[in-house]
Design goal:
Elements lengths: L13 E4 L9 H11 L6 H8 L1 H11 L5 H12 L7 H5 L7 H12 L3 E6 L12 H4 L2 E4 H4 L6 H11 L6 E5 L2 H9 L3 E4 L3 H12 L5
Parallel strand pairs: 1-2, 1-4, 2-3, 4-5
Helix pairs in contact: 3-4
Length: 212
């Protein structure tokens, strides 16, 4: 990573990122806090995702807008054993907050004339501050808007198209290994996010510019 052409031109021209868990605090911490607040074991959601295929099918349905938040809440809540299912999605995500360091790095990248984009698997329409998108991104792909989800290759190709770059010119940052693998499969450079303190220095090295 961090190679340069002999002319000095930047090889990586685009920074595309996930939303939840990259531009926000850890999503799975929010899920664990939700489980505790509902009187469940803190890892109840994690076990459900690992061992119940229907749970993932419901998530994919919500991500692609094939089912509504209310439908997801009723069906997923039943699997999880939650009695109050109205507003379940909102409660699941109540613990996430913006990651100011990563947002600052994204703004710095755009100020350095790096194309920036969002590729996000949505969990319902209300998770995003869409008013901030023009300031942050040159292109946006949200799964529920386009009927695709990560790690399908088409969603990564669409993200690159919307920032006007080829996949080989882009780096993609996500907190899930399978999504990083999906990005790499279409020719993007992928970075597994485990915190701003490690991601930002790697991006600076790859993009050849300061981000903090």
């Amino acid at each position: 990573m961090g190679r340069r052409e002999r002319s000095g031109a930047r090889l990586v021209k685009g920074l595309l990122v996930d939303f939840g868990g990259v531009l926000t605090t850890n999503v799975f911490d929010s899920f664990r806090a939700f489980c505790v607040s509902e009187g469940l074991d803190r890892d109840a959601m994690g076990r459900l995702f690992r061992h119940e295929p229907e749970a993932l099918r419901l998530v994919r349905g919500l991500e692609t807008a094939a089912i509504t938040e209310d439908e997801f809440g009723e069906r997923f809540g039943e699997l999880l054993g939650v009695e109050e299912r109205v507003g379940l999605v909102e409660r699941m995500f109540a613990g996430i907050e913006p990651d100011d360091a990563m947002l600052g790095a994204l703004r710095a990248a755009r100020a350095a004339e790096i194309r920036t984009g969002l590729i996000s698997n949505s969990m319902g329409a209300g998770r995003y501050d869409r008013d901030s998108f023009p300031e942050l991104f040159d292109g946006v792909v949200i799964s529920g808007d386009v009927g695709l989800h990560k790690p399908q290759p088409e969603i990564f190709l669409l993200g690159c198209e919307r920032v006007g770059l080829d996949p080989g010119e882009c780096v993609f940052v996500d907190d899930l290994k399978e999504n990083c693998a999906g990005a790499e499969a279409v020719g993007m450079t992928a970075m597994l996010h485990r915190g701003a303190e490690t991601t930002i220095p790697e991006l600076e090295r790859l993009l050849g510019t300061g981000l903090s």
